Amino acid sequence: MSKTVKGTLYTVVAGIAWGLSGTSGQYLMAHGISALVLTDLRLLIAGGGVLMVLAYSTGKDKTLAFLKDRKSLLSLLIFALIGLFLNQFAYLSAIQETNAGTATVLQYVCPVGVLIYSCIKDKVAPTLAEIISIGLAIGGTFLIATHGELDQLSVTPAGLFWGLFSALTYALYIILPIALIKKWGSMLVIGAGMVIAGLVALPFTGVLQTAIPTSLDFLLAFAGIILIGTVFSYTAFLKGASLLGPVKSSLLASIEPISAVFFAFLIMKEQFYAIDFVGMAMILLAVTIISLKDLLLESKHK
């Protein structure tokens, strides 16, 4: 099997697993687990229980050096609370107020937010393709939120707020740790960030007072959001990115919202309308345009 085919398979499987993660979270919240509790459990188990163990086992000296670097730890704390905890909580809250498919698509407005931030930071006007992608993202969000009716919302105001807030915090999740990841690697930074976020939030989330059911359906759902949808998907995506490069792999991972919609329909019996799919397609097209532009730039620099 060629390197490209392997990378494509790893990345696509990661995107599908991410989609399953959202629906697993929706199932757990529909059966009494709060978004706060689920956020904290996901951070602690995926970060401390798995990612940090993997990072330590593959680079003990690097892990210890990272934990002793006070300057890095301060940046890590900011990333953990603003980028990781807020993003995870906002995304799960959006799912709770809407459904896994809609929440995931709304979060995919994020690359447009990063694009706007980059244009402002670098004082560069957006290109025509970028303007089109911004327009598509805004138009797609409008259709999902209103179904084209100016006088009403098709999702709750809270659902729209948390969906767009998750997109904002996802942008921070991408932007905040750039320097840390360049220096220490993504697995170590994200794993340690998850542990810190989970521990800081522990007294406030109610995890210690919550009785977690241990029936098979709950255990499968927890496996879906933590093991498959966080640990497996993350490591598969990293492997795919190492074979394909970050731009191609990010483009392929855009299968995540399609996967989330499919699993929300299959498992949670959610109903979607034709206009929802038009809005979703517009947002995904916006992300594709941005990714293809980056891919062309990457090719030119080779």
General description of the model:
The chain has 302 residues and is mostly helical. It is 83% helix and 0% strand. The protein contains 14 helices and no strands. It has helices at 3-30, 35-58, 60-68, 70-97, 100-107, 110-122, 128-146, 157-175, 178-184, 186-205, 216-244, 246-252, 255-268, 274-300. α11 packs antiparallel against α12 (246-252). The radius of gyration is 19 Å and the shape is globular. The model has no long low-confidence stretch (mean pLDDT 89).
Kindly summarize this structure in a few lines.
The chain has 14 helices and no strands. The protein has helices at 3-30, 35-58, 60-68, 70-97, 100-107, 110-122, 128-146, 157-175, 178-184, 186-205, 216-244, 246-252, 255-268, 274-300. The longest helix is centred in the last third of the chain and has 29 residues, at 216-244.
Rg value: 19 Å
Count of helical stretches:
14
The largest pleated sheet is described as: none
Rough outline: globular
Percent of residues in β-strands: under 5%
Structural class call reads mainly alpha
Note the gap between the termini.
24 Å
Strands, total number: 0
Q: Would you tell me the overall average pLDDT? A: 89
Task: Estimate percent helicity.
Answer: over 70%
Q: Give the low-confidence spans.
A: none
Order of helices and strands: HHHHHHHHHHHHHH
